[in-house]
Amino acid sequence: MTRRIYKLAGAAGLLASGLFLLGGIGLLQARLQPGIAGGTGILDNWLLVLLQLNAGFSGIGFDALTGLNPLDLVLLFLMGLLCFGLYVALKSTSRIGSLIALVQPFLGILILCVTQSAGRSALMGAMLVISLVMLRSILFSKPVAFTGLAAALLLLMGDMGTTPGSRSLLLAACLGAGYLLLIIWLSLAGRRLFQLVRKEAS
User: Fold this and answer.
1) Could you report the per-residue pLDDT of 84-136, keeping only the tens digit for each?
2) Cα 144 to Cα 133: distance, rounded to the nearest angstrom
3) How far apart are CA 178 and CA 51, in angstroms?
4) Helix pair 142-161, 169-201: axis angle to 10 deg
5) Helix residue ranges per DSSP H, the chain
6) First to last CA, the chain
7) Is 54 exposed, middle or buried (0-12, 13-18, 19+ CB in 10 A)?
8) Is there a contact between 51 and 172 (Cβ–Cβ < 8 Å)?
9) Angle, CA of 80, 86 and 91, to the nearest 5°
10) Against a cut of 0.70, is the pTM above it?
């Protein structure tokens, strides 16, 4: 049963990493091609919207952060599945901390469905808490934990600092760096869970 959970959670982490990566590539392509303004289509997520707002890109407004974007819900759900696997792996290190991380993405989905604006920062909150737990565990390396911590803090800074009509190149840089670290952390965490599957089997 544990191996199945690790496989499901690991796949969720890798899939989320891929979706964030494709969104970032889509944004770069859109910005490098003349005549294309704002947005990356179905791969557009709220973190890319925050990045574009702070970078002062044309064709995107603060209202892009309101409403239910199916991709945002999917990403929160995938984060929840990843945290489920991490909870199983790390509950012996900190059951409370792992549980807090596990609950956040699903609570974020509920809040987002109700408010259609808030709740998405639960992804970063879960990453922050579970990365702190990772620091105390021998199952995950310190670089993985510190990557998650850095990504969560940078993205939370960009998220909380963004207001209607605001523009900040510093926040844009934080969001860009945090976005890249998020992709790396998701892939590393997912990959580690698949390694734990083989460890359980042996």
Assistant:
1) 999 999 999 999 999 999 999 999 999 999 999 999 999 999 999 999 999 99
2) 11
3) 10
4) 150
5) 2-32, 46-55, 70-90, 95-115, 122-135, 142-161, 169-201
6) 15
7) buried
8) yes
9) 120
10) yes
